[in-house]
Amino acid sequence: MDCQPFSVETPSAGTICGLRWGSADGIPVLAAHGWLDNAASFLPIAPYLTDLNLVAIDLPGHGFSQHRPEGARYHLMDYPPAVLEVADALGWKELVLLGHSLGGAISTTVAVAAPTRIRAMVLIENLGPVSQAADGAPGRLRDSIAAYAKLRDKTPALYPDLEPLIMARARLGKMGHKAAQALVSRNLAKVEGGYSWRSDPRLRLPSPVFLTESQVLAYLGAIETPTQVLLANDGLLAKSETLTPRLASLQAASVQWLSGTHHLHMDDPEPVATAILDFLLRLD
Q1: In the chain, what are the domains?
Q2: Which residue of 46, 103, 164, 202 is most buried, as measured by CB atoms within 10 A?
Q3: Average pLDDT for 254-261
Q4: 220 and 128 in contact (C-beta within 8 Å)?
């Protein structure tokens, strides 16, 4: 299936780029990747979703998408407007959200913010935003502001060769070499003397504030959109203490466990795609 580059202008996040596949007559699906990944996260699964109208974006600051202005932060609550503005630019009044990891957390906030527009939601290795106890908030704010101040004095790193970066990404992400290669290749720019990251270095800095777990549960409890949750047997959520109460809060959810690790949709995409298609076919 042909993969086409994608680019739109948005009011809140500037230029958003990505990739698109499938049929213009298919169910419109907007896919959002995980933290420090990019639209290539959905390259392996796209050939199994040919009947969908699939658009995968590079989130702001990731891949080929525009960085936020100087002095701005990358906060979870800044992503939902950008996602909805992409849907507006596509002319999609209703759509399905497909989110992996951070992209799943963003999808849940979009489903809360615009419930009438979201036809369904598929969460891969995610069940809502990261949370933190309220008493950790003051320290988090101090650490975040200090980290942003230090970044101004740092020189961007230059890498002479791709392969060590691919191997490091595969090791840290517990993913296959092919998956890591796809992500790293889209996230690097060729410059004099080697390669530099396209992604905004501010993405690596600590957020100034997290939701509390009670706030996350309130968000999940407010979602009425039909939701599919696909979790990996060896993924990040397999032993999470928050998993059971979060699943209990989320209404109309279909939960399925699959073999694999956090990037199961890249390393073994066919079972994930089959589950997604079965879920979407049941919507009508």
Answers
A1: 4-139+200-281 (3.40.50.1820)
A2: 103
A3: 96
A4: yes
Q: Tell me the C-alpha distance between 43 and 182, whole Å.
A: 8
Q: Read off the pLDDT of residues 214-233 as tens digits, 9 standing for 90 and up.
A: 999 999 999 999 999 999 99
CA neighbor of 16 nearest in space, from 88, 94, 107: 88
Compute the C-alpha angle 155/158/163, nearest 5°.
150
Residues 6+ apart with CB under 8 A from 122: 96, 97, 98, 99, 227, 228, 230, 276, 279, 280
Q: Which of 47, 43, 49, 2 is nearest to 27 (CA)?
A: 49
Q: Which two tokens stand for residue 166?
A: 């691919």
Q: In this predicted model, what pLDDT tens digit does every residue of 144-181 receive, in sequence order?
A: 999 999 887 788 889 999 999 999 999 999 999 999 99
Residue 108's nearest CA partner among 269, 245, 222 is 222
Tell me if 72 sits within 8 A of 4, measured CB to CB. no
Using left for φ > 0, alpha for ψ between -120 and 50, and beta otherwise, residue 61 falls in left
Measure the CA–CA gap between 268 and 21, rounded to whole angstroms: 19
Alpha helix positions (H), 52-162: 79-90, 102-113, 137-151
Report the pLDDT averaged over residues 33-62.
97
Gyration radius (Cα) of the chain, Å: 18
CA distance 29 to 112: 17
